[in-house]
Amino acid sequence: MLDDAFARFLEREIAPDYESFVEAGSVTREAWAKTGAGGFLCPAMPEEYGAAGGTFAHEAVIIRRLGLAGFDHFGIALHSAIVAPYILHYGSDDQKSRWLPGLVSGERIGAIAMTEPGAGSDLQAVKTTAVRDGNHYVINGSKTFITNGQLANTIVVVAKTDPAAGAKGTSLFVVETDKVEGFRRGRNLDKLGFKGNDTSELFFDDVRVPADALLGPEEGRGFYQLMEQLPQERLLVAVQAMAAIERALDLTLDYVKERKAFGKRVLDFQNTQFKLAELKTEATIGQTFVNDCIRKLDAGTLDTVTASMAKYWCTDLQMKTMDECLQFFGGYGYMTEYPISRLYADARVQRIYAGTNEIMKVLIARSL
């Protein structure tokens, strides 16, 4: 029912303007507000904050439908399934009441500021600092590659409260950008793919936030909070990958059934049949694995190693599938007017963010 309702909403409210969002490099605040009003933001948040009170399985339905509809440049997934859970799991009752209803309604747009010019997958290397000053913290530093960066007004910031303490010196803060001075947004970065999803540089120059912007009861818990939530983030990427794979295969099957070469359909060549048989089989394996991971996450049993397996394997498969499918389109596949071209470009970053696939393999190897 949720999938059907969201599909109808996307067709009615998002589809007419989506290409203009891609061209502009950002979805509008109006689209965010409409999505919140429709009940499609933060569906796993509790009902007391205005949400549906669902689970990650409901998040997965929405993320999958975005991918199948071709609207995956809309940064809902990070907002709902990454930013909001940090506040839910680590925020005080007051913090949750202050921030979650706005995230549910779309009045607030969420982002998480982890990556820095000199720190990506190595979160212990962040240089941004937060220094206690009376009833405030003063944040200084810069972040880059921040999804939803141009529009976000509620940003979870990773900062060092004790730079000498390594991982134990990391803390998380929620910065309400419209209530502070010294916060600046850099340019909307020009990317290979995901053109419609604003991705930005962020700068914090003596940004003063109240002491209760700290997530958690004490300083130094940030690295552990990040580690606890990364399995869900990595599964989220796997869900996105499988939706993109499903769409690519559907588009390719439609094309090879219609396109003719040497007097017969491209589908009638044995090479086409064998390649697509392999891809369909791998897609079925991947989706079965992801579904199992979703069940485990909802049961509280999804571990970091399994989530890392899902993230790396599904995104590697995504890149392979896009390459194989684009080949069937021939020269048309290289033209941006064909959706397979966009799917190919969008796939590349999946192997990089939420921890590179090489990092995923390191984590898996440590468990052997």
What can be said about this structure in brief?
With 368 residues, the protein is α+β, with helices and mostly antiparallel strands. It has 10 helices and 9 strands. The chain folds into 3 domains: 2-108, Acyl-CoA dehydrogenase/oxidase, N-terminal domain (Butyryl-Coa Dehydrogenase, subunit A, domain 1), CATH 1.10.540; 111-220, Beta Barrel (Butyryl-CoA Dehydrogenase, subunit A, domain 2), CATH 2.40.110; 224-366, Butyryl-CoA Dehydrogenase, subunit A, domain 3.
What does this structure look like?
There is one protein chain. Helix content is 51%, strand content 15%. It has 368 residues and is α+β, with helices and mostly antiparallel strands. It folds into three domains: 2-108, Acyl-CoA dehydrogenase/oxidase, N-terminal domain (Butyryl-Coa Dehydrogenase, subunit A, domain 1), CATH 1.10.540; 111-220, Butyryl-CoA Dehydrogenase, subunit A, domain 2; 224-366, Up-down Bundle (Butyryl-CoA Dehydrogenase, subunit A, domain 3). The mean pLDDT is 97.
Summed up, the helix count is: 10
**Beta-strand content bin:** 15-25%
| Total count of domains | 3
Shape: globular
Highest CATH level, the class of the largest domain:
Mainly Alpha
- Sketch the topology as an H/E string, one letter per element: HHHHHEEEEEEEHEEHHHH
